Amino acid sequence: MEKAALPRTILITGATSGFGEAMARLFAQEGWRVIITGRRRDRLDVLKRELEGLHGTIEGGTAAHALRMDVRDRQEVERAIASLPPEWSVIDVLVNNAGLALGLEVFPDGDPADWEAMIDTNLKGLLHVSRAVTPGMMARGSGHIINIGSTAGKDAYAKGNVYCATKYAVDGLTKAMRIDLLPHGIKVTQVAPGAAETEFSEVRFHGDKERAKQSYAGFTPLTAKDVAAVVYFAATQPPHVCLNDIVVTPTAQANSTTIFRK
């Protein structure tokens, strides 16, 4: 992969596991300065040390900056973004990656606490972080926001109800943001992965690893590295090129409801 012109800075939400962690490693490897965010300070610190140990200092400073914040808390997000040191405050690319699915029940049996957690993280969290970062991009007349959606936001599936609703919202919001930010030279992209084997299913099933494993039985799912590579590709297109919507699935998956299992 061709390295981006330096210095460029990317902020990745939900960087302590899964897609976000893989993105942080890839972008740092390719010479970017990476702001990693998440709720778990211990994991942030471990990843920051890893990135600095592997990539040391790069043009414009160290390879990584850790920013602990809960995207569900708007005031906390605003304080965290405002606290960035001057050398980290120019964010070229924002990846709204933080998100989760909780539960897999028919709608009447769903847990309202799970619903609220998904809505607060997948949708409101994306809004909070974008709202905090966008003004700087507007002032500079450039920037790129990449929202991590899902095939669940393209085709609803049984028992996915509220999770699907949040990802449909991400799909619609990405399109609307693209229109609203067009005069400011800001790109907006959605990357919508299909089945990918990360902590996703373990979280969905509240830590039931055996049930989570069955989600990927009989086919080869995407990996976090696969999705990170797609995000990197979208982020490194020439200034005049914007990839608006990318749906990426395993070869065995046609859409959110159709997977061929051997």
Count the E strands. 11
Structural class: alpha/beta
Tally of helical segments = 8
User: What is the CA-CA span between the terminal residues?
Assistant: 34 Å
Question: Uncertain regions: pLDDT < 50 for 5+ in a row?
Answer: none
Helical content stands at: 40-55%
Largest sheet: 7 strands, parallel
**Over all CA atoms, what is the radius of gyration?**
18 Å
Strand percentage lies at 15-25%
Determine the mean pLDDT: 93
SSE pattern: EHEHEEEHEHEHEHHHEEE
Strand order of the largest sheet: 5-2-1-6-7-8-9
What form results from the Cα inertia axes?
Answer: globular
Description:
Helix 1 packs parallel to helix 2 (about 40-55), helix 3 packs parallel to helix 4 and helix 4 packs parallel to helix 5 (about 160-180). The chain has helices at about 20-30, 40-55, 75-80, 110-140, 160-180, 200-205, 210-215, 225-235; strands at about 10, 35-40, 55-60, 60, 65-70, 95, 145-150, 185-195, 245-250, 255, 260. Strand 7 (about 145-150), helix 5 (about 160-180) and strand 8 (about 185-195) form a beta-alpha-beta unit. The chain has eight helices and eleven strands. It is globular and about 50 Å long. The strands form three sheets. The chain has a seven-stranded parallel β-sheet, sandwiched between helices. The chain has a two-stranded antiparallel ribbon with strand order 3-4. Strands 10-11 form a two-stranded antiparallel sheet. The chain starts with 8 loop residues before the first strand and ends with a strand. With about 260 residues, the chain is of the alpha/beta class. The longest helix is centred in the middle third of the chain and has 29 residues, at about 110-140.
